[in-house]
Design brief:
Elements (H helix, E strand, L loop, with lengths): L5 E6 L20 E2 L2 E2 H10 L4 E8 L1 H4 L14 E5 L4 H11 L6 E6 L7 H11 L4 E7 L4 E4 L5 E5 L5 E10 H14 L6 H6 L5 E5 L10 H10 L5
Parallel strand pairs: 1-4, 1-6, 4-5, 7-11
Antiparallel strand pairs: 2-3, 6-10, 7-10, 8-9
Helix pairs in contact: 3-5
C-alpha cells in the first residue's frame, strides 16, 4: 500500500474577472461544468489516490468561512479549507502552511483545470519522488511571433525547446516551502510555482501533460470542457 505522503493544494482563490455567462457573479471555480462544480472535479480526483494524505482547497476569504455545501461530497477527513490571498503566490503559501507534516511531496493544482487525468498526476509524482520538481506541460507546436506595441512582427521565436506549463506542478516539500519563503522575502509574486524554484536554480523537469487539461479562462472554455468529458479510462 502506498504511503500517504502527498499533499495537494488546489488554488481556487481567483476573482474570475474574465467569465460572465449565465452564472454571472459566481466565481468560475464554483460554477458547474461537465456534470459538477469545477472545484469538485479536482478535489475528488486527487482524493481517489491512495498516496494523498490531505487536499487543501484555497478559497476566497468570502467563501472560506462558509464554503458551498457540495464541497463536502468527498473524504472530509482528508480535506481542509484555506483562505486565499490577494495574489496567487500568497494563496499557495497559505495552502502550504496548512498541509500536515507528513506531506513530504506537494502537488499544486489550478481549480480552473478540472479535467486533470490520473496518468498526468502519476507522471508528476513519479518524478518528484526522484528528488526534484516536476510539472505537467505540453510542447509548443505553433509558430511563435514576437510583435511590437503596434502589432508588427519583430521576430519569429524558435519553438524547439518551448513548453506550455499546466498543472499539477509537484515538488519535494522542502523545495517548494523554500521557494515561496524566499519569494515572499524578496517581494516577488508569480503565476507559476515552478518559476519560484527556477529563480533559485532548483531543478524542475517537465512531464507530458494533456490537451484535455485545458484551463478554463473565459466562458467559451466551459463548453470545451463539457465536450471533453468524461475522461477516457
Amino acid at each position: 500500500m502506498s504511503a500517504r505522503d502527498v499533499g495537494v493544494v488546489i488554488v481556487a482563490g481567483g476573482a474570475s474577472t474574465r467569465t460572465t455567462g449565465t452564472d454571472q457573479g459566481r466565481l468560475k471555480q464554483l460554477r458547474w461544468v461537465a456534470g459538477k462544480p469545477m472545484l469538485l472535479h479536482s478535489l475528488q480526483t486527487f482524493q481517489q489516490r491512495a498516496d494523498v494524505a490531505m487536499v487543501v482547497c484555497v478559497l476566497p476569504s468570502s467563501y472560506a468561512g462558509d464554503p458551498p455545501p457540495w464541497i463536502f461530497q468527498c473524504d472530509v477527513e482528508r480535506m481542509l479549507i484555506s483562505v486565499g490571498g490577494k495574489e496567487r503566490s500568497e494563496s499557495v503559501q497559505n495552502g502550504l502552511e496548512d498541509l500536515p507534516d507528513e506531506c513530504r511531496i506537494v502537488l499544486i493544482q489550478d481549480a480552473a483545470r478540472p479535467l486533470v487525468a490520473p496518468a498526468m498526476i502519476d507522471r508528476v509524482v513519479n518524478e518528484v519522488r526522484k528528488g526534484h520538481g516536476a510539472i505537467a506541460a505540453l510542447p509548443v507546436v505553433d509558430t511563435l511571433k514576437e510583435v511590437d506595441s503596434d502589432g508588427r512582427i519583430v521576430r519569429t521565436i524558435e519553438r524547439t525547446n518551448l513548453w506550455r506549463a499546466q498543472t499539477p506542478q509537484g515538488f519535494p516539500r522542502d523545495m517548494i516551502d523554500r521557494a515561496h519563503k524566499e519569494a515572499r522575502r524578496a517581494g516577488i509574486t508569480a503565476t507559476d510555482d515552478a518559476a519560484l524554484c527556477e529563480r533559485l536554480q532548483l531543478p524542475v523537469v517537465v512531464v507530458r501533460g494533456s490537451e484535455r487539461a485545458l484551463k478554463v479562462t473565459d466562458d467559451g472554455d466551459f463548453a470545451r470542457v463539457d465536450a471533453l468529458f468524461p475522461l477516457p479510462e
